[in-house]
Amino acid sequence: MSVPEFLRKARTMQVYTKARKVLNHTRQILASEKNIPKRHRHDYADDLDNEAKSMFLCVARANTIHPTTHEDYVARRDYLVQAKSHAETLCYFLDLAYDAGYLRNISMDFWYGEIDEFLRLLAGLRNRDRERFGNLE
Asked: Is residue 118 within 8 Å of residue 66, measured between CB atoms?
């Protein structure tokens, strides 16, 4: 009998893969001038790209840390918290760009769904890390 999906533990590589998928989707959408014209790229596209890239890099950095001490655990946790912050900021920038009349030709539901899935996986990873490494000294 299989374990229900909501009870499965988030694995580090699932979070990493989802962050990479969000970054690639963001860059694919922003590459088209019909979504955000060149004259407004610096207002919206750069911010969206920077947040998606920062989110991915924080997960990648956290993925390189294998805690053996409490300091390692804190460093890894801090990177994961930063990744969460960048993902939430990405949503705010998406809202701003959409409200300004851009990004109308694409499915925002898919984009938000990917970010929500990333945040869910990230929360699971943080809980799993807390259970595994929270007692390190």
From this structure: no
Question: Is 9 a residue whose pLDDT tops 90?
Answer: no
- How many of the other CB atoms lie within 10 Å of CB of 34? 9
10 in Cβ contact with 103 (< 8 Å): no
Contact 43, 49 (CB under 8 A): no
- Tokens 């970010």 found at: 115
- Residue 53 to residue 120: CA distance in whole angstroms: 19
Q: Give the containing element (helix H, strand E) for 111.
A: helix 108-133
Count Cβ atoms below 10 Å from residue 27 Cβ, excluding itself: 14
Scanning the structure block, which residue is given the tokens 């984009």? Answer: 111
Q: Is pLDDT at 1 greater than 70 in this prediction?
A: no
Q: How far apart are CA 76 and CA 129, in angstroms?
A: 9
- What angle do helix axes 108-133 and 12-30 make, rounded to 10 degrees? 150
**Residue range 76-83: average pLDDT?**
96
- The model's pTM is 0.86
* C-alpha to C-alpha distance for 127 and 9, rounded to whole angstroms: 9
